[in-house]
C-alpha cells in the first residue's frame, strides 16, 4: 500500500502537534496562491528546530497533483519567511505545504492548513502607490496577487514586524520600504 505525503504529514502533525515547534502561519485556511507566480511562506520556529528544511507542496486529490512537489530546499529556519516561485500548478482546492527534513521528506516538521491555487501569471511591474499604501496601513509587505484580509490572522502584522526588527532581522515591511526608497531615488533622477 502506497501512502501519500499528505496522509503521512497529516498523521504526523496530529501525533506531534503538541511537540511541533515550527508552525506555518501562511498560507492558512482560505488563502489563495497563484500558479506561476511568487508566493509567500511564513512560519514561526524555536531555537531547538533544525537549522534548514525543505518545502513540499501536496494535495490529496491526485488528479490535481499526482505526488508531492518540492518547492524549495535548504531554507533557513531562522528566517521565518521566504518567497517562492510557484511553478505552473493545476488550479484547485486542498493544497497543503509541508516543511520537512532536507534529507528525509517523510520527516515532517509542520503542515499548513489547506488552501487554494488559482490561475496567475508572474508580475512584471509593481505599483509603488499600492506598496506604500499597504505598508503604511497594515505594516505588511506587498505580495503580488495576494488576497488581502482585515482579520487579526494577518501573518505580516506590525507587531510581528516590530519584533523581527528588534531582533536585527529584515522584515517584509522594512524590505518594502527599502524598495520604495530605491524606487523614489530612481524616479528623482
Automatic annotation (TrEMBL):
Domain Yeast cell wall synthesis Kre9/Knh1-like N-terminal: 27-117
Transmembrane segments: none
InterPro entries, A to Z: GPI-anchor_Adhesion_Reg, Kre9/Knh1-like_N
Alphabetized UniProt keyword annotations: Signal
Record-linked PANTHER family: SERINE/THREONINE-RICH PROTEIN ADG2-RELATED, UPF0619 GPI-ANCHORED MEMBRANE PROTEIN C1322.10
Protein name, UniProt field: Yeast cell wall synthesis Kre9/Knh1-like N-terminal domain-containing protein
Taxonomic source organism: Apiotrichum porosum
Amino acid at each position: 500500500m502506497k501512502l501519500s505525503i499528505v496522509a503521512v504529514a497529516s498523521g504526523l502533525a496530529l501525533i506531534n502537534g503538541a511537540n511541533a515547534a515550527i508552525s506555518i502561519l501562511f498560507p492558512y485556511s482560505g488563502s489563495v496562491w497563484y500558479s506561476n507566480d511568487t508566493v509567500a511562506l511564513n512560519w514561526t520556529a524555536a531555537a531547538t528546530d533544525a537549522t534548514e528544511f525543505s518545502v513540499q507542496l501536496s494535495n490529496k486529490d491526485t488528479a490535481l497533483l499526482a505526488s508531492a512537489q518540492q518547492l524549495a530546499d535548504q531554507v533557513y529556519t531562522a528566517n521565518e519567511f521566504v518567497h517562492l516561485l510557484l511553478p505552473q500548478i493545476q488550479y484547485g482546492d486542498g493544497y497543503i505545504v509541508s516543511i520537512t527534513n532536507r534529507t528525509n521528506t517523510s520527516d515532517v516538521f509542520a503542515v499548513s492548513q489547506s488552501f487554494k491555487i488559482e490561475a496567475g501569471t508572474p508580475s512584471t511591474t509593481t505599483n509603488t502607490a499600492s506598496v506604500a499604501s499597504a505598508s503604511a496601513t497594515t505594516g505588511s509587505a506587498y505580495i503580488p496577487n495576494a488576497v488581502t484580509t482585515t482579520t487579526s490572522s494577518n501573518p505580516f502584522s506590525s507587531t510581528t514586524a516590530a519584533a523581527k526588527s528588534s531582533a536585527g532581522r529584515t522584515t517584509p515591511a522594512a524590505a518594502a520600504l527599502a524598495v520604495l526608497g530605491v524606487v523614489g531615488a530612481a524616479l528623482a533622477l
